[in-house]
Request: fold
Amino acid sequence: MHRASSGFTYIELIITISIIALTLAFVAPSLETYSQSQKVKNTAREIYTNLQLARMAAIEENKTVDIIFSLNPAAAMSIQDSTGRDVIPRVDFQDSTPDVKLTSNLCGANAGKLTYQPMGNLKDGAQTITVGLRQTVTEYEVKINPVGGLRLVKK
Reply:
């Protein structure tokens, strides 16, 4: 009597490993793109959340609140009330995403600065902050309307 052996032959094993390797070769680049896209989205969400907190602080404390952006290459933001006290500690986006870039339509004498009034509206009208990475085209915009409302939009 001959007993049947169980298991894989070497040829079956090599073919299976080859199929797995080919699949990973095709999937890996798309995972990198997804990862970069998520970094941009997370940074934009963090800015969005901090702007919401700044607006709430302005309304709650009945004071003006300044949001100061260091655009490039620093890519950071700090939020202070009218007395200079930090409402939210400085956030340095370079720590979590070293290749992040911020651009904005903030211009004029107060370039890089937004001010929420005690009623929650913006001092200087509608503003847009664009978040992206230096080597990719994925960008998100944080749009702030004149009355202080926020929207996060994929560009």
In short: Strands lie at 65-70, 76-81, 86-92, 100-104, 113-116, 127-133, 139-144, 150-154. DSSP finds two helices and eight strands in the chain.
